[in-house]
Write a structure and sequence with these properties.
The complex is a heterodimer of chains A (87) and B (416). Chain A has 87 residues and is mainly beta. Chain A has a single domain (1-25, 49-87), classed as Folate-binding superfamily (Folate-binding fold, 2-Layer Sandwich). Chain A contains 1 helix and 6 strands. Chain A has a 4-stranded antiparallel beta sheet, with no helix packed on it. In chain A, a hairpin with a 5-residue loop joins strand 5 (63-69) and strand 6 (75-79). The longest helix of chain A is centred in the middle third of the chain and has 8 residues, at 33-40. Chain A is globular and about 40 Å long. Chain B is α/β, with parallel strands linked by helices and 416 residues long. Chain B has 2 domains: 25-77 and 184-253 and 345-412, FAD/NAD(P)-binding domain, CATH 3.50.50; 119-177 and 255-342, D-Amino Acid Oxidase, subunit A, domain 2 (D-Amino Acid Oxidase, Chain A, domain 2), CATH 3.30.9.10. Chain B is built from 11 helices and 20 strands. Chain B has helices at residues 6-14, 43-55, 88-102, 104-108, 126-141, 151-157, 184-197, 241-246, 310-323, 372-385, 399-402, and strands spanning 33-34, 36-39, 61-64, 80-81, 119-123, 147-149, 172-176, 180-181, 201-203, 208-214, 217-223, 228-230, 233-235, 255-264, 274-277, 282-286, 292-298, 332-342, 349-352, 358-362. Chain B has an 8-stranded mixed beta sheet, with helices on both faces. In chain B, strands 9-3-2-13-20-19 form a 6-stranded mixed beta sheet. In chain B, strands 1-12-11-10 form a 4-stranded mixed beta sheet, with no helix packed on it. The longest helix of chain B is centred in the first third of the chain and has 16 residues, at 126-141. Chain B is globular, with a radius of gyration of 21 Å. Classes of the chains: A mainly beta (87), B alpha/beta (416). Chain A binds chain B through residues 1-2, 14-15, 18-19, 33-34, 36-38, 40-47, 50, 52, 68, 70-73, and chain B through 240, 242-243, 251-256, 300-305, 309-311, 341, 344, 400-402.
């Protein structure tokens, strides 16, 4: 089980959180069917560092972003929505 | 290849079993040029190569496998076979596979130990009963066997089942009698042996590192054992599909998750069928070695770790103990994880891609083993003809653009 640092509540066990998919996907204002499909469904799914959304569902209820390595599951940083990911 | 028979076995025994030869050729390196290359030496990839060679007489075929054949999800699943999916497109695809399973040992001259012992799916609530009956009716309309059992009938079919536990009483069950289990390793080995006998090169320890293209389409692959030219490439790489397709510049509608399973210590035959409960999320059968084979769920986040969270196993074992109090004192022998590639609609992707000559068979998520023969069969036809096999056509990659999704989230059974 992961230990995840909520930017507002601090470190909590993974079962308090819900994973919420790839982060930093920009919803297109106008899109062709292919662009809309890309936004809705196509994902980087990287083996390595990923940026993803989490929600502290059984805590403050707020969304935030995390930088996690998908081979080791190590979380390098968590940060508030709208912030740039730390290097 | 030595053809297996009673006579061959007797001859082998008389020679002290010292004369058996390797089951398939295992070239160290790929040839520089092939008519078709399959990326991924799991059950689906090996089956694809076998049917390409056997039914379409394609000349030079190679299967490139990063690790060893059958070492990925083919060797990590819970071996359940069934075709009771909700929609007609899925029922056609999975039932095509069940029909091939029924004759597979004879077809391959290799005992894959297919055992149609029945798959029982439990209902624990009024909603479960309605949903279960809907599946039964949909299956029967699609010509797939499935029947509804009362709690007493379910108990008679599977005596270890406790139908009156206070937490998860059984209100009924759907039974597919043609469903069951098979020996997963034997499926990989059987297809490898039969494909190799037809001239397919199976190269293990050969990782694909690049896909080369020109204006007309794919031209070949870069691998850890040198470049390979091919105008037809079929990617069957399960959890690693996104990574391979990215080499051709494609972004896939896939996310890869760890899925876990575990087995108990072996015991005498006690469990006669496969039981699945979607509500409590538990599924269980007993292998011929006597181990209880138990499937757990996926982790909630994508990962390539092939491990998974321990709390997932705990949750599954709680459910098993609630449903089957007789198993409370069983010891678990080992647990493991595999990486499954999950699509947004929980149905696979089989077919063409925007890159000419590049074909993909992926997105089987948590339930690909059951489809192995059918998947390989329709994918081979798709590669050979350059157009989708009729059964594969609804599972095209472009359904995510057209919106013609096949939402099997309920029938896929594993929580994810």
């Amino acid at each position: 089980m992961l230990l995840i640092r909520c930017p507002w509540c601090g470190e909590r066990p993974e079962i308090e959180f819900r994973h919420a998919g790839e982060a930093h996907l920009a919803r297109p204002a106008a899109a062709t069917d292919a662009e809309w499909a890309a936004y809705l469904y196509e994902r980087a799914n990287p083996r390595g560092w990923a940026r993803e959304r989490w929600r502290h569902a059984h805590g403050c209820g707020r969304f935030f972003n995390a930088r996690r390595h998908t081979l080791t599951d190590c979380i390098a940083a968590t940060y508030a929505p709208g912030e740039e990911p730390p290097p | 290849m030595t053809r297996f028979s009673w006579a061959a076995l007797a001859r082998g025994a008389l020679r002290g079993h010292r004369a058996w030869t390797p089951q398939w050729r295992s070239p160290d390196r790929p040839q520089p040029d092939y008519d078709a290359v399959i990326v991924g030496g799991g059950g689906h990839g090996l089956a694809t190569a076998y049917y390409l060679a056997k039914e379409y007489r394609l000349g030079r075929i190679a299967v490139l496998e990063k690790g060893w054949i059958g070492g990925g999800n083919t060797g990590r699943n819970t071996t359940i076979i069934r075709s009771n999916y909700l929609f007609p497109e899925s029922a056609a695809l999975y039932d095509h596979a069940v029909q091939l399973w029924e004759g597979l040992s004879a077809e391959l001259n290799y005992n894959v130990m297919f055992s149609p012992r029945g798959v029982l799916m439990l209902a624990h609530s009024h909603h479960d009963v309605q949903s279960g009956l809907r599946h039964v009716h949909a299956n029967r309309l699609a010509g797939v066997d499935n029947e509804w059992l009362t709690p007493a009938e379910a108990k008679a079919f599977c005596p270890p089942l406790d139908i009156a536990t206070p937490r998860w009483p059984v209100f009924g069950a759907a039974l597919q009698r043609r469903g069951g289990v098979a020996r997963h390793d034997a499926v990989a080995w059987g297809y490898a042996r039969a494909a190799s006998a037809l001239g397919v090169d199976i190269i293990e320890g050969c990782e694909v590192t690049g896909i080369t293209r020109d204006a007309a389409g794919v031209t070949g692959l870069e691998t850890s054992k040198g470049p390979v030219r091919a105008r037809r490439i079929g990617v069957v790489a399960a959890g690693s599909t996104s990574l391979v397709m990215a080499m051709a510049g494609l972004r896939m509608p896939l996310e890869s998750f760890p899925l876990q399973a575990l087995v108990s210590e072996p015991v005498k035959p006690v469990f006669p069928c496969v039981v699945m409960s979607n509500t409590v999320h538990a599924y269980i059968s007993q292998s011929d070695k006597g181990e209880l084979v138990i499937g757990a769920g996926t982790d909630q986040y994508p990962s390539y770790s092939q491990a998974g969270g321990v709390q997932i196993l705990g949750h599954t074992l709680e459910a098993i103990c609630e449903l089957f109090p007789i198993f409370r004192r069983m010891r678990m022998l080992r647990a493991w994880g595999g990486i499954v590639d999950v699509t947004p609609d929980r149905s696979p992707i089989i077919g063409l891609t925007p890159v000419p000559g590049l074909f993909v068979n992926c997105g089987w998520g948590t339930g690909g083993f059951k489809a192995t023969p059918g998947s390989g069969h329709v994918f081979a036809a798709t590669i050979a003809r350059g157009e989708p096999h009729p059964i594969a056509a609804p599972f095209s990659l472009d359904r995510f653009t057209t919106g013609q999704l096949i939402d099997e989230a309920a029938a896929a059974a594993v929580a994810h």
